[in-house]
Specification:
The complex is a heterodimer of chains A (about 110) and B (about 850). Chain A is an alpha+beta fold and about 110 residues long. Chain A has helices at about 15-20, 65-80, and strands at about 1-10, 30-35, 40-45, 50-55, 55-65, 90-95. Chain A is built from two helices and six strands. Chain A has a four-stranded antiparallel β-sheet with strand order 2-5-1-6, with helices on one face. In chain A, strands 3-4 form a two-stranded antiparallel ribbon. Chain B folds into six domains: about 5-150, 2-Layer Sandwich (Beta Polymerase, domain 2), CATH 3.30.460; about 160-295, Four Helix Bundle (Hemerythrin (Met), subunit A); about 320-395; about 395-570, no CATH class; about 575-630; about 640-830. Chain B is about 55% helix and about 15% strand. In chain B, the strands form three sheets. An eight-stranded antiparallel β-sheet of chain B has the order 8-9-11-10-14-15-13-12. A four-stranded mixed β-sheet of chain B has the order 3-2-1-4, with helices on both faces. In chain B, a hairpin with a 2-residue loop joins strand 8 (about 635-645) and strand 9. Chain B starts with a helix and ends with a helix. The chains are: A alpha+beta (about 110), B alpha+beta (about 850). Chains A and B meet through strand 2 and strand 3 of A and helix 28, strand 12 and strand 13 of B.
């Protein structure tokens, strides 16, 4: 199993959700996050005054998927979240050792 | 009357009271008879003193007004004339007062004319207090009624009570604050006659039923009678206005009044025990009424420890139009509305219609004013909702009372969610440090009551499960017709309701880095005023979904959309012009009045920024078209009108160098502070300037013909017959001695925002003549000003100019040169 952690534009959450749903991946955690990547934010001007917006609002989507569909899920996220512009985000892939269902205590296989 | 013959009846009258009191008559009735005797003497003298131009009224004040005149007390008299005292009045005064003085009366008289009643002597607390007992003795009843009307105003009553409080405390301090005096002053000591008068004045000014409810009326009447008997005997014994019950007199009076006791000393002890018992009763009554009496706040309204309440509930029950005033008074006083008042409204609210709650335009305007965001608004509207009044004042609100809409986000019923949105607005004022950017935005909104109104109505359509914004608009339309909204206010409120979800959708669900998304949103809004309102509405609405919904993350996204849209609206509108066959102008053309032809309307609109159609109401647009008729070079067609607290000048003319600077210069030369405005130029050279300005020196208000003088001065300057610089010279010299508001000036050029113009944004401390100096500086650098947005927010002026040089955008070098030049001008003024 892998944990996919995707940092994406807020406006792309619905598209990414839909793309993952097509792969029958429905369980996910969505978190509001702020940060910056290579572009280190940008400069905004309001009423003649410049100010630096260094931490940009992003969304973080976390899904745990089986190894068999991991690549497909990554592809789905990347395609759905891409605009081609700076700031589209990142997908991180982490190994998951074990997973348990709290209600029943059973271990996912 | 002369001294020789009048003295005897007066002495007789005085002697008779003493005799009757010793014979067991009550002090009140004996003094009432003595007062009547004095009244008759005055009425007789009034009859022979002759007529007075404008009339006169003899008005008894203080103890004399209360019919408690003791034998050697001063006769306090107000001589109220219908006109300033002239020869006939002076003769009247002589004929009235001289015989009184000759006869040995001590008269404390005040002379006033009714013209002085508007500012009832608030600096003379003793006189104000004496007025509380005013009673007509002789003369013109109408003058007495004028006095009563001037005195019975809540503001005067509040002043009287304040003065009474101070005077009472100062008087008590002279006696170390204790009633237990061995030789008491029966008038001034704590528990004396002045305290009884104070109790009665407080009750009369606040709640006449208080004494009865406290059970103090009987004991106070007994104490008063006892003290008046003592004071009468004191006066007669000392043959002067002496009110101190000394040891020697105690013994004599105790004997005369046959107090029980074997010895004079025992009799004195009985007398003084009686005295202290009555003085204690008076002191208790005074303390109780000072603690519980409502402070007058308005007609039939007072403030107590429990909050604002109706003084007379029965009267209030019959006057539903007075109910909203209780909440306004509570807002003003920063206190709640008392439970008993809420109960009263709850009990009598059934069947009360909006028309009976807001019967006049003044009531409806007051209701609108109440909706200004401020401390306590959420709490007062919640109380209003709790007693059922909110739903009667805003009928659509009734459809969402306790309405439950199940979703994963909302934590409250729809009515409470709605009120919570107002709490969020209120917090922007009471805790500006929590969300400083949004707090600053709220301060910039011109009519914040429109925002509150829109929030109150935005979810009323949720009684249905379908598209609630559409239903909310439908329900709000009829109700808004009842309110005296400012020009364009109705459309703005309906716009906000209809689109209240739009900004959160754009901010949280759309890619706002796509300029097209922002441009589309800016087009929907049309201008910065609606952007600010919708941004604040979104902030308040999202924050009222649940305590956790408006995260810093969402707040940041919302602010970014605001900034991007603001920049789009102020810097990019110049490229979007109204075309010849413009569909968005079709309705304006279709609804035109008969005197405006389709051809002249279309011709006028062509080439103006499309934003123009959203900024102005249709009837204003038609007015602009009329102004633009038959315009020739060097002519300017002007219209000046009041706009709320400020003035609005519309100028239509043909473009020429220095035009904008010259008009600004003339306005500044008359002391006008330009607050807001737009200047637009069509490619054909037609100029439309609209300025809103404050007349801080009240030149227009105070001088007849002032508006014509100012308009002629503009016409002369535009025609080149006079110079704005000459007109302004003296003023600008004076201004240099007065520094501008402390705002570091910012001058920024943007060469990319518009395809046709260089955009110049200036932020500086607001000061008279600022706009003139900036625009003159731009012209001096050889640039043409085609479009201007003028805004003033607090002490800061924010102006955006769209400029060209020789018909094209400025080169980077020219931009740099102009920026430096303007920066120099602005800093030179610092």
């Amino acid at each position: 199993m892998k944990l996919l952690k995707a940092i994406i534009r807020p406006s792309k959450v619905d598209e990414v959700k839909d793309a993952l749903a097509k792969l029958n991946i429905s369980g996910m955690t969505v978190t509001e996050v702020r940060g910056h990547g290579k572009q280190k934010g940008h400069t905004a001007i309001y009423r003649g005054k410049e100010y630096n917006v260094s931490l940009l609002p992003k969304m973080q989507i976390e899904v745990v998927v089986n190894n068999t569909i991991c690549d497909e899920a990554i592809r789905a996220i990347v395609e759905a979240a891409r605009t081609g512009e700076i700031g589209d985000g990142r997908v991180f892939v982490l190994p998951v050792e074990q997973s348990y269902r709290i209600r029943t205590g059973e271990q996912d296989v | 009357m002369n001294a020789g013959t009048a003295a005897t009846p007066l002495d007789d009258a005085r002697r008779n009271i003493g005799r009757d009191i010793l014979a067991g008559e009550s002090g009140l009735s004996a003094l009432d008879r003595y007062t009547a005797y004095i009244d008759r003497e005055l009425q007789r003298l009034y009859g022979v003193a002759g007529a007075v131009d404008g009339g006169v009224a003899l008005i008894a004040l203080g103890g004399y007004g209360r019919r408690h005149l003791c034998p050697y007390s001063d006769i306090d008299l107000l001589l109220l004339f219908g006109e300033p005292v002239g020869p006939s009045g002076e003769q009247f005064l002589r004929k009235l007062l001289h015989p009184l003085w000759d006869a040995g009366f001590v008269v404390g008289h005040q002379v006033r004319d009714v013209g002085e009643l508007d500012g009832v002597d608030v600096d003379n607390p003793e006189f104000l207090l004496a007025l509380a007992d005013a009673r007509l003795v002789a003369g013109d009843v109408a003058l007495r009624n004028r006095l009563k009307a001037a005195f019975d105003r809540p503001a005067v009553q509040a002043h009287v009570l304040g003065a009474l409080q101070e005077l009472t405390e100062a008087r008590h301090a002279q006696f170390s604050g204790t009633l237990y005096q061995l030789e008491p002053d029966v008038k001034d000591a704590p528990g004396g006659l002045r305290d009884i008068a104070a109790v009665r004045t407080i009750a009369a000014a606040t709640d006449p039923g208080l004494l009865r409810r406290h059970g103090d009326a009987a004991s106070l009447a007994q104490a008063e009678d006892f003290l008046l008997r003592l004071r009468t005997l004191l006066h007669l014994d000392r043959r002067r206005n002496d009110n101190v019950l000394g040891h020697e007199l105690q013994e004599r009076i105790a004997g005369e009044l046959a107090y029980p006791g074997q010895t004079p000393r025992q009799q004195v002890e009985s007398l003084m025990a009686d005295y202290f018992s009555h003085a204690r009763a008076v002191t208790r009554a005074l303390e109780r009424i000072r603690r519980t009496a409502p402070v007058p706040l308005g007609v039939n309204l007072g403030r107590t420890r429990d909050g604002v309440r109706f003084i007379d509930e029965q009267r209030a029950a019959l006057q539903p139009e007075s109910w909203p005033a209780a909440f306004q008074a509570a807002l003003d006083a920063g206190t709640p509305v008392a439970d008993e008042t809420l109960d009263c409204i709850r009990r009598h609210g059934d069947g009360v219609s909006l028309a009976s709650l807001l019967p006049t335009p003044e009531h409806r305007a007051a209701m609108l004013r109440m909706l200004t965001p401020r401390r306590g608004l959420y709490a007062r509207l919640s109380e209003m909702h709790d007693c059922g009044l909110l739903g009667r004042l805003i009928p659509p609100f009734r459809s969402i009372v306790c309405r439950v809409v199940r979703d994963f986000y909302h934590k409250y019923t729809v009515d409470e969610h709605t009120l919570q949105t107002l709490r969020n607005l209120e917090r922007l004022i009471t805790a500006p440090e929590a969300h400083p950017r949004f707090s600053a935005l709220l301060n910039e909104v011109e009519s914040p009551e429109l925002l509150v109104l829109a929030l109150l109505l935005h979810d009323v359509g949720k009684w249905r499960d379908e598209d609630h914004a559409v239903e909310s608009v439908r329900m709000a339309e009829g109700f808004l017709d009842e309110l005296p909204l400012p020009e364009g206010g109705r459309d703005t409120v309906l716009f906000l309701i209809r689109h209240h979800l739009r900004m959160s959708q754009v901010a949280f669900r759309r890619d706002t880095e796509d300029p097209e998304i922002v441009r589309e949103f800016a087009t929907l809004l049309g201008g910065e005023p609606r952007l600010k309102l919708l941004c604040l509405m979104t902030f308040a609405d999202v924050g009222a979904v649940s305590p956790d919904t408006l995260t810093p993350w969402k707040e940041e996204l919302l602010w970014r959309v605001y900034v991007d849209t603001y920049n789009c609206l102020t810097r990019q509108y110049a490229d979007d012009l109204i075309g010849r066959a413009e569909s968005t102008a079709a309705e304006t053309v279709a609804r035109k009045p008969a005197d405006v032809t389709a051809a002249e309307l279309t011709s006028f609109l062509e080439g103006l920024p499309r934003r123009y159609l959203q900024l102005f109401e249709r009837r204003t647009i038609y007015e602009h078209v009329r102004l633009a008729r038959d315009i020739h070079p060097d002519e300017v067609h002007l219209r000046l009108a009041r706009a709320h607290a400020s003035w609005e000048l519309t100028a239509v003319t043909l473009d020429k160098p220095m035009l904008f600077a010259n008009i600004c210069g003339v306005l500044s030369s008359f002391g006008m502070d330009i607050l807001r405005g737009h200047a637009m130029t069509t490619p054909g050279g037609l100029v439309l300037d609209v300025f809103q300005f404050a007349d801080a020196e009240r030149f227009l208000a105070l001088n007849p013909g002032a508006s014509d003088t100012m308009l002629h001065a503009i016409e002369d300057v535009v025609a080149g017959r006079s110079s704005a610089e000459d007109r302004l010279r003296g003023r600008l010299r004076g201004l240099r001695r007065r520094p501008a508001a402390r705002v570091n000036p910012i001058v920024r050029m943007d060469g990319d925002a518009s395809q046709r113009y260089s955009v110049l944004e200036i932020v500086a401390g607001d000061q008279l003549g600022l706009l003139y100096r900036i625009s003159r500086g731009i012209s001096e650098q050889g640039c043409e000003i085609d479009l201007v947005l003028i805004a003033t927010e607090g002490q800061t002026a924010i102006d955006v100019f769209h400029i060209t040089r020789r018909g094209v955008k400025l080169t980077p070098a020219e931009q740099q040169e102009l920026t430096a030049y303007l920066q120099h001008i602005l800093e030179d003024n610092e």
